[in-house]
Amino acid sequence: MINVQFAALPARWDTYREPLKRAFDEAGLTVDMRQDHPADQVDYVVYAPNSDLQDFTPYTRCKAVLNLWAGVEKIVGNQTLTMPLCRMVDPGLTAGMVEWVSGHVLRYHLDIDRSIAMQDRWEPVVPPLAFERPVTVLGLGALGSACAQSLARIGFPVTGWSRSAKEIDGIKCLHGDHGLKQALSEAEIVILLLPDTPATNNILNADTLAMLPKGARIINPGRGPLIDDAALLEALDSGQVGHATLDVFRVEPLPADDPYWAHPNVTVTPHIAAETRASTASQVIAENIRRGEAGEPFLHLVDRSLGY
Ligand SMILES: NC(=O)c1ccc[n+]([C@@H]2O[C@H](COP(=O)([O-])OP(=O)(O)OC[C@H]3O[C@@H](n4cnc5c(N)ncnc54)[C@H](OP(=O)(O)O)[C@@H]3O)[C@@H](O)[C@H]2O)c1
Questions:
Q1: Nearest-angstrom CA–CA distance, 134 and 199
Q2: Using an 8 Å Cβ cutoff, are 213 and 181 in contact?
Q3: Is the distance from the beta carbon of residue 223 to the nearest atom of ligand 1 less than 6 Å?
Q4: Atom of ligand 1 nearest to the CA of 272
């Protein structure tokens, strides 16, 4: 019997209990999953960083903590978490992100806002084709690479930027400081899909925003701290940035008096770009437990030194 502790907000238990049970059965695992195992009896923790569980010291036989979220910034620095930590790479979450990013890119590309505002006039403006609209994706991980490839399939010339060098079919892949400058200087639309780490904090700041072509649009479904908010507001006011769609913020929910709410060139969405989907994510969790039991390497292990 494998003891699995489910440590997430109580409402999540109802969402995940049946899909996880099904996935464990399908993987041939005999699992006793509860929210209240004695800590020293737990083999694996299925975890959301906003759960009450923050001290992993008593989880002495735990083989891995399996995160339900893609982002690990809230847990990666926890010194009591000494066992392997796996982040979530979920096909359902990835599909959601691809759809959300594609929708917001196409809103900008086709100037859909103009059509909505022009319901009393017949003044045709033909948008360019996708191949005439360079798009840059910062971050080429599970989500960034899927979005980049999907946008490239629509026809956009896509540049991607990551920490290490990459080769992805149909994408111009850049890395390093020089790569960032090049990636930004060509971008009419920039999508941020980087993790929140010390190295990515304020990656979009006054200097890097100035590298963009005037009027570029920014879409941030990554994390709030990737953007220096004061610099973005200034760039929006000066027209250096034409518009921003922001799904994530330093403080969430975004406070009522935050200037982003009232800014005419900002769209705020409430951290809904992509949610982990219970049915597909449960299969990922089950596969990682199967691997742990078989002595095989875990999928999607977090590198603590890099913070993602
Ligand atoms: N808004 C939402 O609903 C939502 C939902 C899910 C996730 N997210 C966010 O999306 C982020 C990305 O998720 P993911 O699954 O794609 O992560 P991932 O697979 O870990 O990919 C991260 C990417 O960022 C790159 N990167 C990391 N540090 C960098 C640096 N200092 N300079 C340049 N590139 C750097 C990595 O480069 P390498 O390839 O070289 O390692 C990798 O390409 C998550 O961390 C989370 O914050 C948001």
A1: 25
A2: no
A3: yes
A4: 3
- Confidence at residue 14, expressed as pLDDT on a 0 to 100 scale: 96
Annotated catalytic residue within 271, 290, 291, 300: 271
Cα–Cα separations (whole angstroms), residue 88 to 125, 126, 259, 298 = 43, 41, 32, 12
Residue type, 123: E
CA of 27 to the centre of ligand 1 (A): 28
Contacts of 56-61 with C-beta under 8 Å, sequence gap 24+, read: 56/80, 56/81, 56/82, 56/83, 59/5, 59/83
CB 245 within 8 A of CB 269: yes
Span 239-290, pLDDT tens digits: 999 999 999 999 999 999 999 999 999 999 999 999 999 999 999 999 999 9
DSSP-assigned letter for residue 123: -
Q: Tell me which residue has its CA closest to atom 24 in ligand 1.
A: 139
Closest ligand 1 atom to the C-alpha of 180? 33
Tens digit of each residue's pLDDT (9 = 90 or more) over 196-213:
999 999 999 999 999 999
From the CB of 104, is ligand 1 less than 6 Å away? no
The verdict on pTM exceeding 0.90 is yes
- Give me the residue label for tokens 């975890």: 47
Which structure tokens are listed for 54? 């923050």
Ligand 1 pocket: which of 193, 226, 277 to mutate (most atoms <8 Å of CB)?
193
- 223-253 residue pLDDT tens: 999 999 999 999 999 999 999 999 999 999 9
Q: Is 228 in the pocket of ligand 1 (CB under 6 A)?
A: no
Asked if residues 179 and 185 have their Cβ atoms less than 8 Å apart, the reply is no
| 223 catalytic per annotation | yes
